[in-house]
Design goal:
10 strands; alpha/beta; 5-stranded mixed sheet; binds zinc ion; 12 helices; globular; Nucleotidyltransferase, domain 5; single chain; binds 5'-O-[(R)-(carboxyoxy)(hydroxy)phosphoryl]adenosine
Length: 345
């Protein structure tokens, strides 16, 4: 039985180590979503192994597509799906290929339109799905294991990167610090929870790019400062105060994110700021932003944790919006591993 539904988009995300598929009705109504995380597969290596990631995507993608269709009550996709939206960059080449090829197969079989979406535009739309009241212009900060960017969203489809990282992404720094403390992978959630019971003033780690009148980030020096401190303690044979190191590292990392966010806000005068990416789940970051929001007249928007990290709902929503702006892809769509959402200002 075909239900009377709005515009239906199937979203596919495979840019890194999560295979995600979702069915979205219109811009906001999630009919079904599944994420198959590879986190346990990559954990023994302390980070994502690209070749392994693509193989895992291949195993997961078709069962996940079947599962979302079933859960959405879609039995005749050629009649019920209106659009297939897939992440086509940036990301790992082998991982992107699996999603893009699956999407191209589906649009041919179902005879429906295809759209290739920028992963970062997807993260921006994670907030649109969850906060329909959020309209451009607004600032978006994407902070994940692969990205640390502040983007000015002038209109949907009109993006300008105000700043990004010179070296490591914020999540990558969390992962590296966790690794050197023996806390496992991914590091963000465990460092965050250790930090909540530690002293953030015990170690005076440097706040990256502090006081510089430029919107850019750098996390590799902070990670090295943590490394030297740990080595020093090890050489002395002292016990490593893991909680205090996590709290002191987290203070410096979050101070840097917040300082540059405030700089971008002052620079543009825009008072709506949307955060997304895995690090946007960070408890200290969320607490600090809520304090700023009360102090200044700035509204912060955050997706729920499941939509901070990589998911296909955000890709379906970005594709839906792009399609209605008149954008289209065709069967020549190919992965674009270093696709920038826009150029620097
Ligand atoms: O967005 P995401 O799932 O994948 C990427 O596209 O990278 O983000 C994963 C990253 C990892 O580096 C992880 O350590 C970090 O987000 N992360 C956190 C927290 N939860 C996840 N970092 C800090 N605090 C957290 N609570
Ligand atoms: Zn991401």
């Amino acid at each position: 039985m075909t239900m009377n539904r709005g515009f239906i988009t199937l979203g596919i995300e495979t840019s890194c180590d999560d295979t995600a598929v979702a069915v979205l009705e219109g811009q906001n109504n999630v009919l079904s979503e599944f994420v198959s995380s590879q986190v346990n597969d990559h954990a023994p290596f302390g980070g994502v192994v690209p070749e392994f990631a693509s193989r895992k995507h291949m195993e997961a993608i078709l069962p996940l597509i079947r599962a979302v269709l079933k859960e959405s009550g879609i039995s005749c996709p050629e009649n019920e799906i209106d659009l297939v939206s897939v992440t086509s960059g940036p990301g790992l080449m082998g991982s992107l290929l699996v999603g893009v090829m699956a999407a191209k197969g589906l649009v041919q079989a179902w005879d429906v339109p295809l759209i290739g979406v920028n992963h970062i535009e997807g993260h921006i739309f994670a907030n649109i799905v969850n906060h329909p009241e959020l309209k451009p212009p607004f600032l978006s900060m994407v902070v994940s294991g692969g990205h640390t960017e502040i983007i000015l969203v002038r209109a949907f489809g009109d993006y300008r990167i105000l700043g990004n990282t010179r070296d490591d992404a914020a999540g990558e720094a969390y992962d590296k610090v966790a690794k050197l403390l023996g806390l496992g992978y991914p590091g963000g959630p465990v460092v965050d929870s250790m930090a909540s019971i530690g002293s953030c003033s015990r170690y005076n780690f440097p706040v990256p790019m502090k006081g510089r009148n430029e919107i850019s980030f750098s996390f590799s020096g902070l990670k090295t400062a943590v490394l030297w401190e740990v080595k020093k303690l090890q050489e002395k044979g002292s016990e490593i105060p893991v909680e205090d190191i996590c709290a002191s590292f987290q203070r410096a990392a979050v101070d840097s994110l917040v300082e540059k966010l405030e700089l971008a806000q002052e620079f543009t005068g825009i008072d709506q700021i949307a955060l997304s990416g895995g690090v946007a789940s960070n408890s200290h970051l969320r607490k600090t932003l809520s304090e700023i929001s009360q102090r200044k007249k700035v509204d912060f928007f955050l997706p729920p944790p499941g939509h901070c990290t990589d998911n296909a709902v955000m890709i379906a929503a970005a594709g839906y919006n792009a399609f209605h702006r008149g954008e289209r892809s065709d069967l020549t769509l190919a992965p674009s591993p270093s696709w920038q959402i826009s150029n620097h200002m």
